[in-house]
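Side project, low priority. Logging it here so it doesn't get lost.
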Amino acid sequence: MAQIEVNLRDIYRVVRKRKWVILLAPLLMGFSTFSVTEVPPPVYNSEALVRVSKSSTVAGMVTDIVSYGSYDNMATQTMVITSRPVLEDVARRLNMVKPGEDTQSAFDELRGRVSVEQRNSSDILAIMSTGPSAKLTIDLANTVVDAYIQRYDFDRDKRMTDAYNFLHKRLDDSSAELAEAEKNLGDFKREQAISLALGVNSGLDLEEKSNQYRQKIDDFRATLATVTRVQHEKDYDSLLQAYLVVDDGIARSITDDVVRKAGSWIELRNKKTDLLRYQTETAPAVVSITNALNLGQQQLEAQIANLMLRLNTVIADYVRLESNVEKQQEAFLRQPEIQSQMEKLTTLAKEKNDTAALLRKQFQDVELQQQEKVEELTVVERAHSAKTVPQPGRYYKALIGVLIGILIGAMFAFVLESMDTSLGTIEDVEQHIGSTVLGIIPHLEKEDVKERMDKDRVKALSPEDVDRFARLVTHFDPKSIGSEAFRTLRTNVSSVLAKTNGKIIMVSSSLVEEGKTTTCANLATAFAQSGKKTLLIDADLRRPTVDKIFGIERSPGLTDLLLGTREPKECYRRIDDLMVGKFGLKLAQATPGMEYLHILPAGHIVDKPTELLSTPALDHLLIEARQNFDIVIVDAAPILPVADGFVLAPKVDAIILTYQVGRVARDVLKRTKLRVQNVGGNVIGIILNDIQSEIGYRHADFSYYNYRYDADMVTSRTPLDRVRDILKKVRGPKRPAKPESGQKKAQEKPSAPSGTSQEVRDIMSITDDDQA
């Protein structure tokens, strides 16, 4: 289809055109569904109610937290009931499987027959079962309840055991961690005892002590240096003059003894000096004093040595005290860090202690719960009855099949329509091809035309001849829709030719069997009926058919005239030739105006028709025809298969292409028009031929008009109309006399009768507009 727009009109046209596809699909689907659907067996439904109470004890909550964490308990239990372990246990209890057999088939069956749902956001689960009998359904529901409770108890015991083992291990680990934290805290306290004991003012006290100890060290070292020099130089006199600072009881006592002995020794030395003035060294008094000096010196040296030893000891003590003070100062500076570490260790120890206490409490709760055996599942109601479940019957499924078939049929119809490459509407033709639609010829009902023929003459003819004559609808059935279509075409062609002063028209088609010859014969008859002197030339020298439609001899004809073997008057056929031909007198005079029709048949078949049509004799023939006739219609061979049409195209005044909707693709028609125009042909329009009734005569779908001349006008023949006509023949009704051709009634356009179909009324309305 060309340029499909999604609107109701196009949808309605597709539905009318493809109605049999849309109707056949649901019928087949419904019948097939009804045929293959068996009567469903009865199905029973039963249910049991179980309450799932989440543990309210501390131990139960601890077990949930430790074992599984956070979860939706009801959703979990719903999945547990329909799990494989529970349903396999149910299958074994119901003897659905034997020991050692595969449980897959039984599990699949039970999975489809058992369902669980939570009732109104409560803690109650409804376990529902279905089955072919009430007893089996009830037993199945109760068995599922028993298997589920047993499975739940097993899982709960397992959770308790897991929680017990977990808490036991965690309690041991926590106790060990607590002992380690307390040990670290004690060790830290001992290591940092000094720092921890320091107060806020300890910094100033330590600084003062450090200065005092440093001063004492300096004093003792100065005293030690003086004593050491005296001992080395033996200058005992300086001991009496030196200032010895000794802030130590023992050292001070030794110092006093040293000074005293130094004074005694100095006195003895002075005495000896005095004696030596008048005595010798050997004098007994001098010797006695000398011995006393030596002994005193020895004692003095020994005491000095003791003093030096004591001074070194005191200095070492003060140096140690000063070192301790420095350490205390350093500890005082690190006191914030130590306090922080102390707090961390204290907090860690407290946390470990709290954790151990909590685990110890939980462990005791788990032990209590193992002894309590709290029931968390309660059977609210066991299954005791079963209800019948309504099942969709055969008619219901057949209805579903019909609905699905409607969808499939509609989809298939639109797929077929989308794959249809033909032109679907007048707008399609005019937009895609670029030419005006001059006429729309509906499908011609030959049976209706045969009813208008003379019965006596028809009996004398062969069925083949009658079928050919029935194609001449404008002569034998002038009141039909087809005749009106050709008269409308005549009017439109006359209007176009009047603007160009043309007389010679070539009618052709893209391919064979598109109705061009039938169109030419009826169009020529319509012109003759209007009183115009008309010539119909059968230029289709390959498959001539005009002579068969009019029941005349083919030879002599156009080929004889072009070859020069016959004169024009010998080749033309007139009404007298029709009367003496197969038509006979009555068929030839069926309608007035045939005396204006002249026919030039094809003549003898020649081997090279294209070359024959290219001769100058055809030009002379057309010149004479233009002078002697009012209208000349040339029936040419199809354009695309042969070249005859290209030879004739530039020789005629106008060209009309017939197009059978649904038979030829749109691109073929467009290519035909372009090729004709390339050789100089003047295409004035398109004729849409053989429009089927299922396409629909609507405004955009090849609308057409019809005129009614009397009360017995025959419209498009339907099977119902034919049955009615047969009944009328059996009853023997009299057919009213036909009005004469000259009567005014035949020239008027009365409105359509009430019995006329909607198609006829639509066709009539469009024809009025065209002729206007």
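Brief comment: Residues 1-5, 65-70, 694-719, 733-772 have pLDDT under 50 and may be disordered.
Revisit when time allows.
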